[in-house]
Design a protein that fits this description.
heterodimer; A: 170 residues; alpha+beta; Chemotaxis protein chec; 7-stranded antiparallel sheet; 26% strand; globular; B: 126 residues; alpha/beta; Rossmann fold; 5-stranded parallel sheet; 5 strands
């Protein structure tokens, strides 16, 4: 069954995916930080350090999703996914790639089922502290989700557009 | 009695390790691990596993294309697809190439084991 989705639904779907999948994969509760509780400086601080993953979706929903993991959080996630053993610096991206692949795949699957249309995920890309990653449209369009946990913070930048039937060639 | 052999094709070492631990605790033998489709095809031809457990989203040729190639080479190949993308459209694509099952990531261990058992029964009944 097809239904129309709006930005609130997209936001809610990604929020559910990040919270549920993180709990299931690494047994960690993510607490969404309400917009009114966020401080502007938080954005600036997190752009300076930590690791990032970027993934895109193509199809009915064209999106770019960037996750920024604080040092504490990525260490917890990668250690837990690696059975409690700290992976080597060269292996970290493999675990974070899988984390974002599963969380975003979960969200996109839900949105695909809601709309009755298709979107596919690209292969995730990993960025280290000193790699440059453009977040130019951060304040223009898209959503910014912030999560706290007992072991660090996760920032999710979500930029997307929905294809019309005409754009999809229907 | 010989153990059922499994080849895992997944670019994630996390997924392959989890599958290895699970299947080996339950009487299977994981005989190989390929990090992409091309490697998976090569290892399938070399190792002749009873079952291939394969991810869909991988660098290079994806899991669906890899499964199609394997089925052309060996129509009796037994393949179980895994993916974080588990919407009805993806399931239709899996069925369109002649496969029956798609397990969502992160998977439930008992679902994965039950599906493997089902595949073995179907394979043995051929």
């Amino acid at each position: 069954m097809e239904s129309v989705i709006d930005s609130e639904k997209v936001d809610e779907t990604f929020d559910t995916a990040f919270c549920e999948v993180t709990k299931k994969l690494v047994n960690l509760e993510l607490q969404r930080v309400a917009e009114e509780d966020r401080i502007t400086a938080e954005k600036e601080v997190i752009l300076e350090k930590g690791y990032r993953e970027e993934i895109e979706t193509q199809g009915h929903i064209n999106s770019r999703i960037v996750c920024h993991f604080s040092d504490e959080l990525y260490r917890y996630i990668t250690d837990t996914m690696n059975n409690g053993v700290t992976p080597s610096e060269e292996e970290i991206h493999l675990f974070l790639n899988e984390y974002i692949n599963i969380t975003c795949g979960h969200a996109i699957s839900s949105l695909n089922n809601l709309t009755g249309k298709r979107s596919r995920l690209t292969i995730p890309k990993f960025y280290r502290n000193d790699d440059q990653l453009e977040l130019t449209n951060l304040n223009e369009e898209g959503r910014y989700l912030v999560y706290r946990s007992t072991t660090g913070m996760l920032h999710v930048f979500l930029f997307y557009s929905l294809q019309t039937d005409q754009e999809e060639g229907r | 009695m010989e153990k059922t052999t499994i080849l895992v094709v997944d670019d994630s070492p996390f997924a392959s390790k989890q599958i290895q631990d699970l299947v080996e605790e339950n009487g299977y033998e994981m005989i190989g691990y390929a990090k992409n489709g091309e490697e998976g095809i090569h290892m399938y031809e070399e190792l002749h596993p009873d079952i291939v457990v394969m991810d869909i989203i991988m660098p290079g040729i994806d899991g669906l294309e890899t499964a199609e190639i394997l089925l052309k080479k060996d129509p009796d190949a037994t393949i179980l697809m895994l993916s974080s993308l588990c919407d009805s459209g993806t399931l239709e694509e899996v069925k369109a190439i002649g496969l029956k099952y798609l397990i969502p990531k992160p998977w439930e261990d008992d679902v994965l084991l039950a599906t493997l058992e089902m595949l073995i029964k179907q394979r043995n009944a051929k």
